[in-house]
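User: Hey, quick favor. My workstation is busy. Could you predict this chain's structure for me?
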Amino acid sequence: MSKIGSLGARLHRGEVGYDFVKNRKIWYGISILITITAILGLAVRGLNMGIEFQGGAVFTTPKHMSTSVSQAETYAVEASGHDAIVQKLGDGSLRIQIAGIDTGKSDEIKDTLSKDLKVNAEQINADLVGPSWGKQIANKAWEGLAIFMVLVVIYLAIAFEWRMALAALVALIHDITITTGIYALVGFEVTPGTVIGLLTILGYSLYDTVVVFDSLKEQTKDITKQTRWTYSDIANLSINGTLMRSINTTVVALLPVAGLLFIGGGVLGAGMLNDISLSLFVGLAAGAYSSIFIATPLVADLKEREPQMKALRKRVLAKRAQAEAQGEPVADRAGASFDEETADAAPAVVGPREQGASRSRGRGRPSGKRR
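Assistant: No problem, here it is.
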């Protein structure tokens, strides 16, 4: 653990680092490949929308049912004539979900299920959701997501600049697409809990992104007044300086979510935990990836197209070529904090410096006794 802490400190000081911005085309290619896979999953399989969005009924049986999930699904399909989703909950009860049925049909299905499952009809709890109400919930979910995106872009454009707002928006769309694509491929049910999970992971993704953007904004205030670093160099320094913080917060957040997904959802069979935990698990991982490998490199790409940054890059590269020709050390990466007063100075020495005793100590003092 001490080695990890030491690595984090060295990353923050710029003693070590990885050139994320230089290899940005690799990360863009990986993201495009994953995004295309997610879109294909959505197009081929589609989302398994819960009854909250399309209407239907949910039947919950008494505890400790001996009927298997597959057998209960067969009973539900025969009784309703529709596809059914059956889950066995932790207390042994069965949750039978059937979409696209009305109130009259649900009473008939309930009676048929009670006979097939050999339980009293009064012991089966039935919850109904109308199709119009489900459609309204779906529309509200999309409206909430759109409003969230607009507010985020406006805030980032004001607090930072439009390029950072655009990069953050691309990263958010990237995270949402991957998460919904995983839902389509896995076949998990989309419920209001899923929407809550999506909004939660967007907040986590923005947190990591804003931390890097804040560091980048602070270190590039007077970047054109020096000839040591390009904008991409400073962007790379900002990523490395906040890398361990992003990794630590993501791992700490993923551990309890993994417990919900694999233990709560997988072992105990809690349906609602599956809905929330899968979106959180996939979204947190995708958000950490996008904030490091997508958002900041994209900002660097956009900024490097500005005339001022193009001119700065030419000056920096010319100075480095001159230093290399003269055999002087060349600063080829963002390995130290940028400061206007020391930007053109020699590379900073990290750590305490040893200073010898001055030989001229005492010179210039008047001789003789002091009064």
